[in-house]
Amino acid sequence: METTLSSKQKKYLKSQAHSLKPTVLIGKSGASEQSMLSISEALSHHELIKIKFIAFKEEKEALVDQILEATDAHFVSMLGHVLTLYCEHKEVEERSYKLPQ
Questions:
Q1: What CATH number is given to the structural domain containing 33?
Q2: 23 and which of 34, 49, 72, 93 could share a cystine (Cβ 3.0–4.6 Å)?
């Protein structure tokens, strides 16, 4: 898997994520170990997820880096306080999204 997504792939994933509701909420506990576990679990089940920052809105850029490092996910977009992440499923037949080249 490549280390970054192309702009074409990001555009495709943004369109796919448009109707999704946030799967994980980052609240007063911040990017805790439990939050990271929830994010990893959600990514393994859904591949494409949204994370909403309810608290820590000023520190969200730093938290995004922490989340990306801890989960091996790809950054898709940050719109307002909602982060969209993608992590390709390890099993090819289990993948929900066919990324454009």
A1: 3.30.110.60
A2: 49
> In the chain, how many domains are there?
1
Of 18, 48, 53, the closest CA to residue 35 belongs to: 53
Q: Would you state the structure tokens that stand for residue 80, as one six-digit string? A: 């307002």
100 part of a folded domain: no
Identify each DSSP E strand in 6-94 by its residue range: 24-26, 48-53, 74-79, 82-86
Q: What is the largest CA-CA distance in the chain?
A: 39
Q: Reading across the β-sheet that carries 24-26, which strands appear in turn?
A: 24-26, 48-53, 82-86, 74-79
Residue 14 within a domain: yes
Q: Which two tokens stand for residue 57?
A: 């809105």
Q: Is residue 35 part of a domain?
A: yes
Angle at 100 between CA 81 and CA 86, to 5 degrees: 30
Q: Give the Cα separation of 20 and 28 in Å (integer).
A: 23
